[in-house]
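Lab notebook page, bench 4
Experiment: in silico fold of construct C2
Operator: M.H.
Input chain length: 89 residues
Purpose: comparison with the prior construct
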Amino acid sequence: MSDEWVRRERSFRGISKRLAIQYLETLGGEQVDDDHVEGEGWEATLSEQTMTVGPSMSLTQIDFVFEGDPDVLDPLIERFAQKAMRAGG
């Protein structure tokens, strides 16, 4: 990892970890283990949790730690967010 890399944390609800990894792969990443995807100039670590929304509803939330070159990472996160929002939130 370069000294110039930055860290960005994001959370998305209503998307499965499997689908999130698939989206990261379409953006140039390669899954290296169950919770980690790497691409040129970036990497992402994912964790999954269930969030309660109201008295009887729950949603899956995927928490991401993105790290990488900010010139690569920021546009990547924006493209990922557009895909994730179409998927559910």
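Observations: The two ends are 31 Å apart (CA to CA). The chain has a mean pLDDT of 91.
Next step: discuss at group meeting.
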